[in-house]
Amino acid sequence: MEATSDMLPLIVALPFLGALLPGIVIRAGRDTCTWFTLFPTALALLMLLLHAPGVMAGEVYHWRLDWLPGLGLDANFFLDGLGLLFAGLILGIGLLIILYARFYLSKNDPMGQFFTYLLLFQGAMVGIVLSDNILLLLIFWELTSLSSFLLIGYWNHLPEGRQGARMALAVTGMGGLAMIGGMLILGEIAGSYDISVILQHKDAIQASDWYLPALLLILLGCFTKSAQFPFHFWLPHAMAAPTPVSAYLHSATMVKAGLFLMARLWPVLSGTPEWFYIVATTGLITMVIAAVIALFKDDLKGLLAFSTVSHLGLITMLLGFGTEAAALVAVFHIINHASFKAALFMTAGIVDHEAHTRDIKRLGGLRHLMPVTFVIATITALSMAGIPPLNGFISKEMMLKETTYAAWAGNPWLVPALATFGALFSVAYSFRYIWHVFMGPVRDDYPARPHDPGFGMWAGPALLAAIVVGIGVAPFVVEPFVNVVAGAVTGAPQDTHLKLWHGVNAALFMSIAAILGGALLLASHRALEAGWLRAGPPAAKAIFDAIVGAATRAARGLTDGLHDGSLTRFSAIFVVTVTLAGAIAWSTGEIGAPSRATLPIAIVPLIATVLLVGATLCLVAFHRNRLLALVLIGVVGLTVAVGFAYFSAPDLAMTQLSVEVVTIILLLLALNFLPRETPRESSGARRLRDGVLAVAGGGAVAALAYAMMTRDFALPSISSYHLANSYKGGGGTNVVNVILVDFRGFDTYGEIIVLGIAALVIFALTQTVLRGAGGRFLESQGRPGGEAGDRHPLMMVVATRVMMPMALMVGVYIFLRGHNEPGGGFIAGLIVAIALLMQYMASGFAWAEARQRVPYHSTIALGVLIATATGIGAWFNGVPFLTSAHDYFTVPGIAELHLSTAVAFDVGVFLTVLGAVMLALWSLSRMARRTGEPVNVEPMDVNPAADAASSREG
Amino acid sequence: MIDHALTFAFACFGLALLFNLYRIVVAPGVVDRVLALDTLVINSIALLGLYGILEGTAVYFEASMLIAMTGFVSTVSYARFMLRGDVIE
């Protein structure tokens, strides 16, 4: 049965929306903050539970929204039994964890931050389990990796926390990356990225050649997330997190995401030999190895971490068997494990919180001091050991029974034997948790005097312990639910009867053997531990660090080899690569015969060419003399600008001219701090090599340009489109400007933002330099020699004052007509900037700065904001961002005015360019300002008007 | 007649550009180089103006006006750089 529910996206969104609150309301106190965290969780849980009756009746709820249909990425959600189970676990245990964390976190911990991370994580997890689109699922999957990174590293003052967080992110992130590949393959095979569609294509997927690669990649993601061997090592290191995080992420939810995905895709991926041998074997190995390691962990949370890994392995193995009965047991054990393991983690946290240590060797005898905690821990640990009448016993019995049906490579004994072996260790470490922590004599050397915590802290684990007993005594209560969930996993209705007593069968004997053996193991723990330490099991962290270190070194070697900060090195690599690529393209491609006649060579263009080439050659020859080099660059720039004008590109010519002036001022400001001559740094052979490369690269570009210009385009160019639509669509006859502000307005928009950022970076860098060692160095330098003349000559001041209004008017003129004739905001901005710079040069930095009312930062911001507002304005017109509208207006007395919204956009460009240029030059000229230098109040050195006035007064 | 005059003028200014470049590269002092660059700028204005006359259009006038208005700013900056070291003080 299918139904639509509008609540599904809300259930996912609520934790994310709620995540905005704790960070803010923490100012109102820790209790308020907790309430504001509990509220979205509880509301989401309530909405989820409203669906429960329907799901139990076999309904599947859907909600769909096309997000990026072109990519197959849609915000589709669905809720069936499996989703209900996991979402219920995430939200339900989430509630208990939030309550527990309220009392666990100390006053010094930033609680708002913690709850924000926790809710982010919660939302991501709920997103995973309710997604009906595998791409959407991948997004949530990555979000859980990121938010768990934040949670594990929450105590970022602890190096273990930071390292554990990094390791978890590296391992699960790598798995996530692999999974993206696997999911894409899966989606390609099925022809849809919707999970509900993929689940219908079992035969097509298993018959595909891509089945095995997809399976391996997806399993890599699942195994890393669920800490399966050999990726199990990150989980114990993640225990550096605060205990609520360990209890939530590393027992109940995140580590089960891998299991969830295996269960979700079980109908299409399972049932093949590949699935059985990969999944069941990995699960079995993980289960046994982790159980053995867990017994020898002295850290309470370390013990629980490895026991979690072991139980995850158990569930993985059950899913790997590929039978419906085993899948049902897996589902049942997920429920049971979540209940007892979350409670155990919380009791471990309580012990740590009260006794100030988690080291089992330093604990013991706590049953007298912490009776409540003792009862909870005992019940849940016995359940973990599989002791009747607790829920762990039922699922463990069923698991052992399933193993007897699994033949590994024809051997019917191997799997049951190993499973019993694992169960034996599981019993041993569970007993150890009770025996070595709570039993024995009371000690007097605890780091702190332990006692039971307040009700708020033990309420959560107590509730879970009650569930553990409840399910164990009356399994029929959860029976319908387990059957529905198992039905959702297997895709076929299930009707299994859960009961405590299965009669005398093989599983019972295996169980008894495990319990007796486990008790024996614990009794001989001391001797075994000595042997374990002698054997010296490999330390996963060292191996991981070695691998990461090797990868870092390799990456650094490659990067430094290509790009060591030397300009010559990477330009050489760049030129060689591009030239070779061009040569290959040229030799393998085809090109027609020259079809366009060359123009006759006139005398003036010839002279200009000689000028250009001559100046460039001289530049190469004399580049060590920096000032001469700048003058020669000026010649090149001017010639190019005149060339633009000659070849009918007046816009470019004007831009080039104004940029030229700004560049020269900029470089002169910089040259002031540099030596007059560039020292000779490279050897002759090296210069020869660089010369050859430069000539080859330049020659290749020139040859290519010649080849292109002597032929017609093979395909019709887009110029004709621009010419035809410039006036019609953009409302302007200057095609260049219309392209800038309309056709390619989005590019321009991005560019002005980049320009503004660049100017702000220049500002920030010079500020930093001036404050640091560089500033002190400049101060100690004093003025460079060669001073002569006046600081602010009268003639220059007067000339620039006269020029100012004219230059501004030219700027306005160029701006206004820019849409129809050469000009526009960019050129106008440069012209006005030059007009302002003249005032700075004439009357000095301090004088001009004192008269500057609007900071250049604001000018940049204003420009970008105006451009943005213009772009957004198009939305109100019902058209996409930056679509321009235009009309004609008659202004009496002036002329008919043609106004386009693109003009407003151009104002934004104008302001940004003006602000960026001025801020950059202002920042650089500020570097020359040193303390102790007299600041001029008067605009010029000699002021005849002021002198005359003072003499009259005198 | 105007064509001949234009051709003559183009030749003269073209030649002047080459002389300017020569003076920029081979000069007794920095001042000569900067003055030569300034002259080069002025000669380009003239060339653009002449070209406008030849083509009978006013489009080039603007470019030459812009050069005239901003070109001297570079010369002033060079002068300030040589005299004071600091362009904006």
Automatic annotation (TrEMBL), chain A:
Domain Na+/H+ antiporter MnhB subunit-related protein: 796-918
Membrane topology: Multi-pass membrane protein
Residue ranges of domain MrpA C-terminal/MbhE in the record: 686-766
Domain NADH:quinone oxidoreductase/Mrp antiporter transmembrane, residue spans: 131-408
Keywords, ordered alphabetically: Antiport, Cell membrane, Ion transport, Membrane, Transmembrane, Transmembrane helix, Transport
GO biological process: monoatomic ion transport
Domain spans labelled MrpA C-terminal/MbhD: 612-676
Residue stretches making up the NADH-Ubiquinone oxidoreductase (complex I) chain 5 N-terminal domain: 70-115
Transmembrane intervals: 6-26, 33-57, 77-100, 112-130, 167-190, 210-235, 247-269, 275-296, 372-394, 414-435, 455-478, 498-523, 566-587, 599-620, 627-647, 653-671, 691-709, 752-773, 794-815, 827-848, 860-882, 902-922
UniProt subcellular location: Cell membrane; Membrane
Family annotation (InterPro entries): CPA3_Na-H_Antiporter_A, MnhB, MrpA_C/MbhD, MrpA_C/MbhE, ND/Mrp_TM, Proton_antipo_N
A Pfam family reported for this protein in Swiss-Prot or TrEMBL: MbhD
Domain of life: Bacteria
Any one GO cellular component localisation term in the record: plasma membrane
Region (Disordered): 935-954
GO molecular function: antiporter activity
Function of the protein: NDH-1 shuttles electrons from NADH, via FMN and iron-sulfur (Fe-S) centers, to quinones in the respiratory chain. The immediate electron acceptor for the enzyme in this species is believed to be ubiquinone. Couples the redox reaction to proton translocation (for every two electrons transferred, four hydrogen ions are translocated across the cytoplasmic membrane), and thus conserves the redox energy in a proton gradient.
Protein name per Swiss-Prot or TrEMBL: Monovalent cation/H+ antiporter subunit A
Organism: Rhodosalinus halophilus
Lineage of source species: Bacteria, Pseudomonadati, Pseudomonadota, Alphaproteobacteria, Rhodobacterales
UniProtKB/TrEMBL annotation, chain B:
GO-annotated molecular function: sodium:proton antiporter activity
UniProt KW keywords: Antiport, Cell membrane, Ion transport, Membrane, Transmembrane, Transmembrane helix, Transport
A single Gene Ontology CC term: plasma membrane
Pfam families: MrpF_PhaF
Subcellular location: Cell membrane
Annotated membrane topology: Multi-pass membrane protein
Transmembrane portions of the chain: 6-22, 34-54, 60-83
InterPro entries to which the protein is assigned, alphabetical: MrpF/PhaF-like
Main localization, broad class: membrane
NCBIfam families xref list: PRK06161.1
Stated family: Belongs to the CPA3 antiporters (TC 2.A.63) subunit F family.
Name of the protein described by the UniProt record: K+/H+ antiporter subunit F
Lineage: Bacteria, Pseudomonadati, Pseudomonadota, Alphaproteobacteria, Rhodobacterales
